[in-house]
Amino acid sequence: MLRRSLRNAAAGFAAVVLTVTAWSAPPSSTTLPSQYASPVAATAALADPVRIMPFGDSITGSPGCWRALLWNRLQSTGHTAIDFVGTLGPQGCGQPYDGDNEGHGGYLATTVANQNLLPGWLSATRPDIVLMHFGTNDVWSNIAPTTILAAYSRLVDQMRASNPTMRILVAKIIPMAPSSCPECGQRAVALNNAIDGWAAGKTTTQSPIVVVDQWTGFNTAADTYDGVHPNAAGDQKMSDRWYPALVSALTGIPTPTPTPTPTPTVTPTPTVTPTPTGPATPPPAGCVASYRLVGQWQGGFQAEVTVSNNGATPLTGWVVRLDYTDGQRVNQAWSAEVTQAGAVVTARNAAWNGTLSPGAQTTFGFLASAGSTNTTPTAHCSRS
To answer: In what residue span(s) does the CBM2 domain sit (predicted)?
Structure first.
């Protein structure tokens, strides 16, 4: 991928905050509004691709198949001079697309902001546009909207430090109704109700913020498979909401002057977040599970497991067993079907990430409780 910076990309994009709700292609006799005019000509003229970072949690990255739908719609409508960027790769979706993203399953916006994780990702990818759907796990953790929006502000500041003309599309998060959190639905409403005012105070002429309403018209019963994560219908709705706002951002970027590829800098890993790697036990089938402690706090922690196919034949399903020793209990998991019996945690692939070609990998994560000792478990992986 080309990694060149578009530093003079500010002209022609007004410093107003837009709330995008729905959009459909007009008939051929209709004159498009100026923000949608000549999208093909605008993107085709670019000397370098416009780098677009999808940013958030598992709704964006695990697998976040709205990204595949959005990418292919952009390609089919002439927006080919684009590059989806991120330090994470695609996780399935059953169709070819540019799957690079920054959707970290289980992450909180407040944690990413407080631990300064974003600058390193920005340095490695140098986006021109960010699509941010972030805050679901913060809502689940009962973090106040004011605290979440303060994290948004810090993240926006970091984006602008990376690229002063960054175009930032911020979503009102999709509804949520997890069975373990009956209050989460109203908490999401409270956050969404505060986003417009926050964006109005944070947008600038040079680096505009556009609010994209992913809430309206989204139904947790019809559009998610678990009350939180989009199913195929939900992915389509999310793609449809992102599309007009992203087209508007693309048409506001003039033809750039190519610049040399920058040398990425690395942000040190925060000392407050240890990341030990657990034992990996590859069985003859070539399935390997690697355990990582993402973060830890008094009474709890977040962990992530990477499942890799190191064999020569495809995996069509996998099972990971984690053997704990200190009374750890899993409370919430994503991107796998997780059960626990005593000290043994068993994770089976989700419907969309069970097939792994040789050399491919996927991840799942969870939140758990723990006492004063939290020994890294032994991890085993096998075919299912």
So the answer is: 280-384
| H helix runs in 2-99, sequence order | 39-44, 58-61, 66-76
Q: Could you state, in chain order, the average pLDDT of each consecutive group of 10 residues for the chain (384 residues)?
A: 37 43 35 33 56 97 94 95 95 89 96 97 98 97 96 98 97 95 95 95 95 95 94 95 94 48 42 45 67 81 89 91 94 85 92 84 86 93 90
Q: Is 180 helix (H, G, I), strand (E, B) or coil?
A: coil
Identify the burial level of 91 via C-beta atoms within 10 angstroms of its C-beta, where 0-12 means exposed, 13-18 middle and 19 or more buried.
Answer: buried
Q: How many CB atoms lie within 10 A of CB 331?
A: 11
Residue type at position 220: T
Output the six-digit token pair for 28: 């051929």
Buried b (16+ CB within 10 A) or exposed e, 251-284: bbbbebeeeeeeeeeebeeeeeeeeeebebbeee
Phi, psi of 267, deg, nearest 5: -85, 125
CA distance 240 to 12: 24
Which is nearest to 163 in space by CA: 53, 89, 239? 53
Distance CA 356, CA 127 (A): 29
Show contacts of 295-301: CB within 8 Å, 24+ apart: 295/111, 295/115, 296/370, 296/374, 299/369, 299/370, 299/371, 300/331, 300/367, 300/368, 300/369, 300/370, 301/328, 301/367, 301/368, 301/370, 301/374
Specify the pTM.
Answer: 0.60
